[in-house]
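Example for tutorial group B:
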């Protein structure tokens, strides 16, 4: 079956008239640079090409709820960005998008609200920002105008020291202002100061390792 014919068939199954379907298909084929694909056979498509075609047939009737399972699998970086931009556009136009993936960096970039699942059970849910705040470790990056030496403080401990940049972890009972005061009182010029939040990948690994350890302990009992 040819790609154009299949897209037309699927669009009509979803309630579009033939003329509406043709209009939508031409729009999406042009938008995703698929105009020369119309007469290609489905079996001749690469995995990346199949992903783009499946995306088009999923969204061309403008559903209010869209479920995408690993939509970037097999796509090169350019086409992955193309699909990602379209997902953002669909969300902005009012569609609810449920997006399933194992790639935490994609979740961090695309999603507003997430649910982490391990062994078929929910281990965490919430907004991306709230979850990152929940698992923060009081770590900060501070860059000074010159390389610091002989730093000793009860306010923080140094986790990394890379030239002018320090990664510090604030001790319990102290705040970020105490760190700034320490360096300012020691006549250092601060060029940048920012909190380091854990990535979703780090949070997921930590939670999964904890869950799996609990499961193994339970099995031993």
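The residue assignment follows.
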């Amino acid at each position: 079956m040819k790609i154009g014919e299949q897209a037309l068939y699927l669009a009509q199954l979803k309630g579009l008239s033939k003329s509406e379907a043709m209009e939508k298909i031409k729009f999406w084929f042009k938008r995703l640079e698929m105009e020369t694909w119309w007469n290609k056979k489905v079996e001749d498509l690469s995995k990346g090409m199949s992903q783009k075609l499946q995306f088009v047939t999923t969204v061309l009737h403008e559903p209010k709820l869209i479920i995408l399972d690993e939509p970037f699998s097999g796509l090169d970086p350019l086409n992955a960005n193309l699909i990602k931009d379209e997902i953002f556009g669909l969300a902005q136009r009012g569609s609810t998008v449920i997006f399933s993936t194992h790639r935490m960096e994609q979740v961090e970039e695309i999603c507003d609200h997430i649910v982490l699942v391990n062994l078929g059970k929910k281990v965490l849910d919430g907004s991306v920002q709230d979850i990152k705040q929940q698992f923060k470790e009081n770590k900060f990056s501070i860059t000074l105008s010159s390389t610091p030496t002989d730093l000793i403080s009860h306010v923080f401990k140094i986790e990394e020291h890379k030239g002018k940049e320090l990664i510090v972890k604030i001790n319990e009972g102290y705040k970020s202002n105490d760190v700034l005061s320490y360096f300012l009182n020691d006549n250092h010029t601060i060029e940048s100061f920012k909190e380091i939040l854990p990535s979703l990948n780090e949070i997921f690994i930590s939670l999964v390792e904890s869950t799996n350890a609990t499961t193994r302990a339970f099995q031993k009992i």
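The radius of gyration is 25 Å. Compare this with the pattern of hydrophobic and polar residues in the output above.
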